[in-house]
Amino acid sequence: xxxxxxxxxxxxxxxxxxxxxxxxxxxxxxxxxxxxxxxxxxxxxxxxxxxxxxxxxxxxxxxxxxxxxxxxxxxxxxxxxxxxxxxxxxxxxxxxxxxxxxxxxxxxxxxxxxxxxxxxxxxxxxxxxxxxxxxxxxxxxxxxxxxxxxxxxxxxxxxxxxxxxxxxxxxxxxxxxxxxxxxxxxxxxxxxxxxxxxxxxxxxxxxxxxxxxxxxxxxxxxxxxxxxxxxxxxxxxxxxxxxxxxxxxxxxxxxxxxxxxxxxxxxxxxxxxxxxxxxxxxxxxxxxxxxxxxxxxxxxxxxxxxxxxxxxxxx
Amino acid sequence: xxxxxxxxxxxxxxxxxxxxxxxxxxxxxxxxxxxxxxxxxxxxxxxxxxxxxxxxxxxxxxxxxxxxxxxxxxxxxxxxxxxxxxxxxxxxxxxxxxxxxxxxxxxxxxxxxxxxxxxxxxxxxxxxxxxxxxxxxxxxxxxxxxxxxxxxxxxxxxxxxxxxxxxxxxxxxxxxxxxxxxxxxxxxxxxxxxxxxxxxxxxxxxxxxxxxxxxxxxxxxxxxxxxxxxxxxxxxxxxxxxxxxxxxxxxxxxxxxxxxxxxxxxxxxxxxxxxxxxxxxxxxxxxxxxxxxxxxxxxxxxxxxxxxxxxxxxxxxxxxxxxxxxxx
Lengths: 315, 328
What we know:
The complex is a heterodimer. By secondary structure, chain A is of the alpha/beta class. Chain A contains 13 helices and ten strands. Chain A has two domains: about 5-165, Rossmann fold, CATH 3.40.50.11890; about 180-315, 3-Layer(aba) Sandwich (Rossmann fold), CATH 3.40.50. In chain A, α4 packs across α5, α7 packs across α8 and α10 runs parallel beside α13. Chain B has ten helices and twelve strands. The mean pLDDT of chain B is about 90. The interface of A and B includes residues 203, 291, 295 and 307 of A.
């Protein structure tokens, strides 16, 4: 990888037929975007299979122990692509939102992937830094690196952006049955939309008769103060605008070891305490059993129902 | 005329507790026993005891199970209500002490804080994967020292100069305790130091960010420990209330919940279940890469329940034909 001339790298790039995308981090930060873009450029795209217990176990074996669960899972998803593709797309993510920065771990991903998987596949990368570079420019750069024609890149980028918009608006707000509890579920998109991690929580809430909606990241604007981290800032912005009349509770799905969450969770608590909307944080890690999650969710829902009944009998 | 009895079963990691109340919530019978290796066997023997004591005078009219074994035992005994242990414990504490604002519940592997305002649970927290600061650790230390749990409790309470023990982690606490004993500290002082460390650990981890207001109720198996009670008083400067039935509050709460649930016809499977061979077996589902373990409950040769699995598709499915899948 190191010391290769620009033209040599280009020639190598040209040969790629199949490109892999790990079903982790970037896959959830930009749903459908990169997949569609690469496919529209004429490449065969292989996305690693959905996270399963096997992925979690494999992540534990090959990943650095100090990483958070989503980064560990990303390693396992990369490993799964080994032997299936010529190259894997791992962007350097510095920011996904104007005025904000991404978790610093995401900026090191291509280097980590090259260090760990240099024998398995080539790593195609591009810098995503929406604080400075528009997303379209990053896509154009990637297209150029893949030696695509300018007109093809433009068309692919348009289709990719539209696919992302569709994917982000797919989960429309649920219809409110009268008297039902309505929860917002917050967390980084790669925790919230990885069905292996969040599925049991949504399933349990459903059995408890709660309508739960994951926070949307389709909004590309958020006030940069006081939270500098992109996804956290979108969440904080949403919490500040949350109407206590419409929302009965918030569940925060955090991952063990997450540096950003450890700082912002206090802010989430403070803003919701003022609004008197109960918040519960569930910490995801590879050891957590379903039992603890069930018990906490049941007790949380019980407590909210009782508070409502109590308030009703008083009036 | 038979009295209607409501059965509460709290099946935790260390103990199985049983309480039977009448329709007014008065306790007719209570037992606390160690689970040992089998929660089902411990429930069977607790039920036999209850039957022997109460005889034919009480008719079970409703059952509620709670604790980490609540779903398993709920299926075994036929529970009308299955309730999480946080709600069950709070229910009992609020029933006995309506003015309570904070509930500490320390059990075998769990420790919890529940905040109550105006008789309603408003917030709670539970320890994470680590069992530091719970009953299991006191158990293992008592075994190491060759003393019983009641001994540990009394000796700690007699301490005049508690030693400082590092309580952040039980592994470190143990090495620290051994260090203190080797440097000549009295056992009472070390034990009281341990109680202080456990309570500090509980307050700084589980209760972090929670507003602890009096009256405080302390319950769960560990609330029997005099050293722990003393440590709470000394550190919090609030004397915790030890409720009547402090050891079995989860089961008591469950029984009260059953009594108020408006059960018309209980699905309780009868005391007879104590006399039958009931066991569990499991198999690995290979339908997807999650390879979940599915647990089956067999009552006298008949499959009565299946559970486990992330997708929950096995839940409630008792068609014996599925057994063929396990041979795959």
